[in-house]
Design a protein that fits this description.
The complex is a heterodimer. In chain A, strands 2, 4, 5, 6, 9, 10 and 11 form a 7-stranded mixed β-sheet that branches. In chain A, strands 1-3-8-7 form a 4-stranded antiparallel β-sheet, with no helix packed on it. In chain A, about 35% of the residues are buried. Chain A has no helices and 11 strands. Chain A is mostly beta strands. By secondary structure, chain B is mostly beta strands. Helix content of chain B is about 0%, strand content about 55%. In chain B, the strands form 2 sheets. In chain B, strands 2, 4, 5, 9, 10 and 11 form a 6-stranded mixed β-sheet that branches. Chain B has a 5-stranded antiparallel β-sheet with strand order 1-3-8-7-6, with no helix packed on it. The N and C termini of chain B lie far apart (about 40 Å). Classes of the chains: A mainly beta, B mainly beta. The interface between A and B is medium-sized, with 27 and 22 residues.
């Protein structure tokens, strides 16, 4: 089985622009979660989706949004980019719904976003 | 909101020595997970603990979940160079999303 894929792998944007990141989960997985990883704050939960429904949302401003499509692929969008949004954005997929059973998450390689 | 503290932040060991990282949550957790991230890589799931007082072993790795379900530990016996990386715990409290600790960076000197 192919792993979790994320596109693009690297991105450079200017402050004030918006960006859309994409995540394709492992085939058959219907849960997708997004995380922001920075050296200072570590891994921070953004949101998670199951069957096109947002199940949980982390403590991020409304500039961060996401969605999941019927084929389980997910996108996250960040509007009005700030310098502090520079980070590695990781997507993870799981077979089970959030919080149920052995909720083993498989992470993608991430998208490295640099805001200048 | 829920906070997960992890210590130490860095741990230097000689190859062959043991290593332990500790995780403490501000709230009771429904489960706790452990991940390993190699330098330049992405987190890889190691294990999930669900029951109070649970202990699980994977070869040289031993994972424990506290009786109160608020703390956990990962112990590696006789470290090897392949153990290098950052070890994260991640807790879920009820219906919330996963909260990750900031990780322990394991550095091994041959």
């Amino acid at each position: 089985k192919a792993g979790v894929t994320q596109t693009p792998r690297y991105l450079i944007k200017t402050r004030g622009q918006q960006v859309t990141l994409s995540c394709s989960p492992i085939s058959g997985h219907r849960s997708v979660s997004w995380y922001q990883q920075t050296p200072g704050q570590g891994l921070q939960f953004l949101f998670e989706y199951f069957s096109e429904t947002q199940r949980n949302k982390g403590n991020f401003p409304g500039r961060f949004s996401g969605r999941q499509f019927s084929n389980s692929r997910s996108e996250m969008n960040v509007s009005t980019l700030e310098l502090g949004d520079s980070a590695l954005y990781l997507c993870a997929s799981s077979f089970l719904p959030p919080g149920q059973g052995a909720y083993e998450q498989y992470f993608g390689p991430g998208t490295r976003l640099t805001v200048t | 909101g829920q906070q997960v503290m992890q210590i130490p932040q860095y741990q230097h060991v000689q190859e062959g020595e043991d290593f332990t990282t500790y995780c403490n949550s501000s709230t009771t957790l429904s489960n706790i997970q452990w991940y390993k991230q190699r330098p330049g890589g992405h987190p890889v799931f190691l294990i999930q603990l669900v029951k109070s007082g649970e202990v699980k072993k994977q070869k040289r790795l031993t994972f424990q979940f506290g009786e109160a379900k608020k703390n956990s530990s990962l112990h590696i016996t006789a470290t090897q160079t392949t153990d290098v990386g950052t070890y994260f715990c991640a807790g879920r409290g009820g219906a919330d999303g996963l909260t990750f600790g900031k990780g322990t960076h394991l550095i091994i000197q041959p």
